[in-house]
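Interim report, section 4.2 (structural modelling).
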Amino acid sequence: MSNKSKNKKYTVPKRTARQYKTDIAFVSSVVGIFTLAALCLIILPRTNYSETERRELTKYPEFTMEEYFSGEYAETVSKWFSDTVPQRDAIMEISAAIQKIKGFKQNNIELHGVGGLDKVDDDNSDVSAPDTSKPTESTPVESQPVTSEPIEDTEKTSSDTSLDTSNEEIKDPGINNNDPAGNIEINNANGVAVVGTRALMMYGSNPGMQVNYANVLNKFKAALPDVNVYCMLVPTACEFYSPPELDGYHSSQLKAINNVSSNLVNVKNIDVYTPLANHVSEDIYLRTDHHWAPLGAYYAAEAFAKAAGVPFYDLSHYNRVVNKNFCGSMYGYSNYNVTLKNNPEDFVYYKPKDIEYTATYYNYMLDENWDVVGAYDPYDASFFIDYGDNGGNNYCTFMGGDAKIVHVKTNAGTGRKLAIFKDSYGNAVPGYLFGSFDDIYVLDLRYFTYNGVSFMKKHGITDLLFANNIFTAGDSGKINSYEEILVQNDNDMFKMYYEEFEITNN
Amino acid sequence: MVFSDLFFLYIFLPAFILLYCISRKIDSNIFKNKIHSKANSLVSNYVLIIFSLFFYSWGEPIYIFLMIGSVFVNYIIGGLITRKKTSSKAALVVGLVFNISVIGVFKYANLLVDTLNLFGNSFERPISEFPIGISFFIFQSMSYLIDVYRRDVPPQRNFFSLLLYISLFPQLIAGPIVRYSTIAEEISTRHISIGDIADGSFRFLVGLGKKVILANQLSVITSQFLDGDLDKLSVGVAWIALIAYTFQIYFDFSGYSDMAIGLGRCMGFHFNENFDHPYISSTITEFWRRWHISLGTFFRDYVYIPLGGNRKHQPFNIMVVWFLTGLWHGASWNFVLWGVYFGIIVMLEKYTILKVKDKIPKFFLHIYSIFLIVFGWALFYFEDFGRLGKFIGILFGNAQAGWDFLAQNTLMGNLVLLIACVVFSLPIKNIVSKLYTKSLDSSGAAGLMCVGKVSCAVVLLLVSTVLLVGNTANPFLYLRT
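Predicted structure of the assembly:
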């Protein structure tokens, strides 16, 4: 059989005059709309920064022969074009609204990236066998836009020492949320469930890693035998607000916390689980953000002060500040869940009324990979930075973010000096302790360029608190950071301020 | 570059349309006075070539030279085939060996190395990634040589015309496999009517919608469950994910073919259809007449029939064709397994179902076919046999749970999408176009239909555009074929 017979030559079909007319009408309308859309995309100013995803969008690449022949150049140009469309955040909202049409909510729960039943919980047999590699089980979540690019650090704009609580000073408070905690936490997560109007990051336990976490804290204690070392592991909202339908899709955080505490040697465990569990009916967690609410941190700080045997001021000593219409990070993490956007919440925090303090900021300068590359001039400012209504980054109220060391000097007169080694959950705690310790050093485990042990000794620290959320205790990256801090040398990059540092402290 | 990319849609395409229109105008001036020449395309062909090469080089800045080089070799050999009758067979053999070597080295050398390494060797993989669309342009080159050898078409005297045939950007990287004989004449002489543009642009938008609105949404389900930790899946979730993949691959690939056919049409080329509602098939034999038609006919005309077709050792011929069909889809043994799986079914059908087909209720035949097709996609999806085995186990009950909340939630959360997929797998196009033709009898109905068609087109365009914003990775599944 020859293929000649099958390849009918195309013959122009007869089209009637009416058909001709409708064709003309069709083509001109479509071409018109297409041209309009093209002009909008080409002419209107491009978006460079996404408020919702809190990241710098793809930049137009520089042309080099090497980049071109590797195909990188073309790929980045395409990416740039679709990433930076005019009015990006608004269009992404429309996109999410369109995608919502694809189905119905089941039991008022929407799942984003939840990969399946979690078996780890039943499998505590390997508790004693710490593993060094964690399974990459959440690839789909990793591909969410939120995690793809770090945000530029911000403190570049805030090197002037006049920074005070009015956020007018800060050009873009959004950028100030330099919080890669989100990056790492979401990698560890088993996806996001939006239950009613509350977003929950599903927790996946890693018992072996929890032992590693306990061990690194033990090493700090061993190196600092005279210092009181505390472990505060904060459960996340998923533990308290997951409905029974989600059983099996997240692990027990209580088990994880108990696993860590049972492996601690001479490190005091601060039980914040119980006080938080006792107050679940209050707004102790943010619904639209992956952090807890400042009120939750209050109960945790209370438990800590009690355990440390220091005085503690109750909420009557604080002014309650309310930021309306807050929609936090979970909107981005859930791939623009419309329910969250339509149900913003109040961000409520507490500023000390009559407790005096000075907070000195030592800000790090970061490069685009979030690596510390330098430092800014230290300056004094309020511990609290108000982000106002309608925000998305209000959790940065505490010190404006993470990439810094903040030294708070108070009139507590207790003779105790506290260092808090924390992730972003820990940011909300020190604000309640200004009447409890004479000095408080807030140190972030991801941005710390000194030797952890000599730092504590140098500054006469009496109490060292590790305040992290439970995801951190399963995160090899963060545990390694602590391991490094134990052994690393003081970084010269800070030499210029180092003397001042010491003067401040003595 | 891919079609479902804002850069293609709103930068490349407008630039191309503009220059193509201008070049057509120039062409019509050039050929106006040449009454004796049948041809009417010259400048427009160069515009097409330049844009096509740019299109390909955007994703393959190095392998573009391989593509051009291979076209050149085929051009020379095409000429040799017709030069002398005595040596034409030898020239054809040389040409086929050349093409098979190119695809063998650039696509299958890694598979060979991996397979040898399984037996204790440790060779390095020679190619990091194989050239996009190599399976398509090499197969088109072979079709050219064979058609010329069979005297179905004269060889192309102009190198650039042959380059245009191979590199033509609508069909370059993911098919359909356009035979040289199909568009040989249109390379030099083509007419574009307003009807072509209306039909072609609508077809393109339908394809875009299939890809962006259906396939890309389904990919959220498939990548989440099929690429993740299989141990976590319940039976229900596994089936939902596999069914989602079944629709994803259909709308992805047929969407691409629609876009290619539509674009070609707007430029004055008429490619053959590549899909004919494959999921309504009542037998697997029928399925393969409706799925990726240009590949099926390629193997039928260039392999199956020359081997002897159904006249001698038919079972052997069938198995060769299906082995090759499987292998064509990817350089991994699971594709071969997938091909052979269908080969065996088709062969069994010949002796069983096809003989009694009319006596079995259609409904049962559909269930039978759909089950085998869906299951087949599992073989197609997992290149890792360990994961494939585990997944098949889960499909048939070896899982933590049968039906769990996640299955329920995923099903409900995508119910409208899945129903839409079922509906658009049915031949509703035929019904609608019948209605459309009928409406042309009265001006009122025609106006109404036109408004409807415009609305559809605009919705498809705008919704696809919105969904593509920020979506930076949505390659076609068949791109690396």
